[in-house]
Amino acid sequence: MGGLQKKKYERGSATNYITRNKARKKLQLSLADFRRLCILKGIYPHEPKHKKKVNKGSTAPRTFYLFKDIRFLLHEPIVRKFREYKVFVRKLRKAYGKAEWTGVERLRENKPGYKLDHIIKERYPTFIDALRDIDDALSMCFLFSTFARTGKCHVQTITLCRRLTVEWMNYVVASRSLRKVFLSIKGIYYQAEVLGQLITWLVPYQFAHDHPTDVDYRVMATFTEMYTTLFGFINFRLYQTLNLVYPPKLDSKAESELKAEHEEDYAMDSESYLEKLSALSASLARVVATAEEEENQLDLFPTEGEDQENMQAREKEQKEQEAQKKLFEGLKFFLNREVPRESLAFILRCFGAEVSWDKSLCIGGTYEVTDETITHQIVDRPDMDKQYINRYYIQPQWVFDSVNAQMRLPVEDYFLGTTLPPHLSPFVEEKDGDYVPPEKLKLMALQRGEKPVQEDEEEEEEDDEEDDDEEEEDDVDDEELTEEKNLKKMEGTRAQGKTLAVKVTPGKVKPWETGSVGNKVRLEQEEKAEEKRLAIMMMKKKEKYLYDKIMFGKKRTTREVNKLTAKRKAHEDASKAQKKQKKAKKQ
Amino acid sequence: MAAVKRLKRVAAAQPGFMSFKSSAGSDDLNSGQRKRVNKNKKKNWNKHSDIQDVEEFLDDVRLQERATGGLISEKPDDSLFFVDIGEQRKYVQPEVQEGKKGKKSKSRPLRIDLILQHDSLVPPPKDILAHQQPNAKKLRRIAENAEKLAAMGVLPRRQKRLLNRRPAITASKSKTAANNFPDRPYYDLWGGDAKETADPYYLEQTGKKRVKRPEKLNSKPSVLPAVEVIAPGGSYNPDFFSHQALLLEAHEVEVKRERAELRIERQLAVNREDTATEETVFQELVEGLVEEEEDEDEEEEDVSIRGGLQQEKKTEKERRRERADKIKSQQKQAARVFTDKKQQLFQLRSIQATLKRGEQQTRERVAQRKANQEAEKSMPRRLGRLRFQAQDLEVQLSDEIPGSLRTLKPEGSVLKDRFKSMQKRNMIEPRERAKFKRRHKVKYVEKRAFREIT
Question: Is the Cβ pair B179, A568 closer than 8 Å?
Fold first, then answer.
């Protein structure tokens, strides 16, 4: 009847997990090798739900792996290679100790190596899977490619990362898939759309490294080893989709143009090709020389109702994208010495501009400063001695802001020596009713095609005052009144078909101030408001509760927005006053 | 050979022959008596005939040939004699030696080499086999035949066998290049799959088939994105408000950290009341001397009271009263419950309300738990001994914001950001650098030379 007594920790979660040390022993690997294997195979530690059960009654913090994962690792052919390598190192050390130099040489020749191709294939069964996971690889490769060759990691790794990143940048240029750029204090964030996937990566500024001590370089190097393999295969496939030659070759026409007289001054022969590629100033050779990409249009299907609307929206979107791709087409840029060449050249080339730079800066400049056809010169210094009349001298931020705004911004704000408008993050997307900084409002207005209003500051101030009055009314605690007002506001926005974001400073149209036409409008509005109130009255209790909650939330956001705008106004007033004072002092 | 011997003998018999060693033979002839031996047997001829003189002679001939290159008797007189006309040369030689003393001493051959030199003037016998080849004719014929066959296009069997051998071994031996080789080639990994040609059962049984990767492993350990974009306040030329917002965030982090520090400090602080004063010290010394008696008294009293109670026996009357009391209280309780139940009929509404409230509470809790679970997906888990510690927020103060891109001073390290991001996404467990532990204590010894000075 009784059977065997059940023992503790012999079934359930205790057997589903395995500690790191036990796993290591099962695989007969050293800890370093085990970590490497886990990173390469994409097996991560796991936090069990009931630690005490898993840990057989002990509560000591440990690293656990799923037992099945480790069993899967046992089948990996690389494990054997790791063991072989361990033996190789042992033999080599022995040969060194005995000073058997021929033995050392022989061992060196037969050094065991391994390939990661099958692991990549296994982890990413399809190309799109791999492309989705490329963010990490990109950031890591860009990071490693900026390392100094000081022995923190293998020089070969740095060179390989550099090669891969150059290939990637060339691909993005060729496919014109860059979407957003953000200059942060940490580095430069880029976002590109490749085959429908949004890919974000971070590129550090050049020469900005102090090597932190609390980073495990061995772990990072292992990740990089895996990512370089993945990245290379992805690059190959991407080049194939564009009919480009891989490894990338410069166009024969461009190559002859780039044949500089003093090539040896820049780099050794073995490196000069990569340098030329990384200059990004020339287009790449294609497998089949096509005249121009044919405009690919969406297939049209007869649709109805919502579908049609969707279709139209999609078409519009595509048109916008097409327009964005040709943002800088036909413009000729010249980069001064002090601007970050690589990022600017990359971005400008992504949008179809021609770029060149000083001969002393880098290989691959295609024309001189003296070229009369240059339209923009990018300068980042307070003053220039010699200026040409027929070109704009602008600061580099213009390029980044224009890309983010998807249009060529007016150059006046970015002229040499002027104080720049703030560089807004393109990665922030405001929802309805959120606070939107006035710079962004202005930008949105520009995008809609409205002319920028500049010299009528006084009017604006008046408007603002009116706004303030309204706010004060809002602040009065008469709840019903405010609610009604809110309702009216909502109505107004709906009637005008505008987004709330634009309606942060309403008050231009006030129904009771206008004449007979206004009367009509007012009547209509009142009617609608009445209807609304009735509808609210008819609501069930539950729905009413929800409705009130929503309304409360909205009210709160508007209140916060109003607070922020007021603050901003105060800040601006203060700064204006300061300026005036300064002016007065100067005079 | 015989002819040569004869010739030599003839030469020796001639009256003009001079031998190098003339005195050797004469002793032997004079010594003792001659032994008589039958000479009718060839064996005895060999044994007892005296051939020493002939051998000596022949030795001498060989010696002459070795030393002078021929018989001295046959040499012309000019090569044997010269006219002595004084010592002229002796003066010439030393002068030359003085001039190139150093060089000559170096170029002179070693004595051991001179000793080992071939000094015989008889040339070594010619090697006849040097110009002859065994089986030359046969070999020549074979070669001719092979040439003819090759012209016809027929390969010999050995070559055929070589060609038929499988080349697989050489392919597997080719060295695998390192994974970070800068010019490593890539190919279309996801391109047309080469179907497995071999029998799947065979592959499975021989362990050559790859084990399928479990689907579960392809899910990521965290929902966080690989690259988290910094807040808009982190722009190199930020908008005023977003910058303020970021500053506020950084400030809050800092305040929290400071508060934690303060808390520890407070816990570590010594309570002033705990320090010993003279009074407390004295009390401690006296303790147990003064108050003993009082304690004993109290204890005694306690015991007496308890004992008294226990010892008293209940009377019958008391028991009856107790029983009645008990029944009464039970009745009272029952009545109470009954009335309560009756009252509850009127409380129906409030009961319903409490029930509803309870239900509402459970619903809220469920929602909260779900939200927590969702939030946990993006939280760093506890994967090892250490907890994940977020990196310091990168912030530039208002006066640090650069006017232009040229003057920007980058903040933070991208490498650390990447590393922390991986920890945050539960890909690696947080670890600290292994501390260096000295196995043996370091011994400091003053050197004697140094000690003498000081």
Answer: no
